[in-house]
């Protein structure tokens, strides 16, 4: 990997970890019995805001990464187009609204709780899923923005 690629990888991984930590902080205060309603309310909005902000940050960093990578290779000094970072925020990498993707861990949590799991176990099952989804969305946003497509 080039220096720019190494730095970008670290930047995106650090960003994903920070967003997962923020989401985990919100998630830990949820009640499995009320999680479906909670994710449709303020807590769900806070989680969505955190992930969207992470996506936006990942997309914004793509333009600088591409410029650095081009400079390392002594490629064109001017890029052919400007990136619109906002176009990558709020959309899941499969094209659906991010809200529908981020609701899945609530269903996982509620289903586990309904099946008899204690609250901590049910929340952990949902948070594990949420952490994977959140980190994946940040990484996918970075890749898509770097390639200039979504």
Uncertain residue ranges: none
Annotation field: number of helices: 5
Ends: how far apart?
A: 24 Å
Strand content: under 5%
| Number of DSSP strand runs | 0
Helix percentage range = over 70%
Structural class: mainly alpha
Q: What is the CA-based Rg, rounded?
A: 18 Å
**Overall outline:** elongated
Largest sheet: none
Order of helices and strands: HHHHH
What number is the mean pLDDT?
89
Give the helix/strand layout.
Layout lengths: L2 H25 L7 H5 L2 H31 L25 H17 L4 H29 L3
Helix pairs in contact: 1-3, 1-5, 3-4, 3-5, 4-5
Describe the protein's architecture and organization.
By secondary structure, the chain is mainly α. It contains five helices and no strands. The longest helix is centred in the middle third of the chain and has 31 residues, at 42-72. The chain is elongated and about 60 Å long. The model has no long low-confidence stretch (mean pLDDT 89).
List descriptors.
single chain; 150 residues; mainly alpha; 5 helices; elongated
In a nutshell, what does this entry contain?
The protein is built from five helices and no strands.
């Amino acid at each position: 990997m080039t220096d720019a690629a190494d730095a970008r990888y670290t930047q995106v991984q650090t960003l994903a970890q920070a967003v997962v930590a923020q989401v985990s902080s919100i998630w830990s205060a949820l009640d499995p019995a009320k999680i479906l309603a909670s994710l449709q309310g303020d807590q769900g909005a806070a989680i969505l805001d955190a992930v969207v902000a992470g996506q936006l940050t990942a997309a914004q960093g793509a333009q600088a990464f591409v410029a650095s990578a081009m400079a390392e290779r002594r490629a064109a000094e001017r890029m052919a187009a400007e990136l619109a970072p906002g176009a990558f925020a709020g959309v899941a990498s499969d094209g659906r609204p991010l809200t529908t993707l981020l609701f899945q861990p609530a269903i996982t949590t509620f289903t586990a709780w309904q099946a008899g799991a204690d609250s901590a176990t049910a929340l952990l099952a949902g948070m594990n899923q949420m952490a994977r989804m959140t980190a994946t969305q940040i990484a996918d946003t970075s890749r898509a923005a770097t390639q200039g497509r979504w």
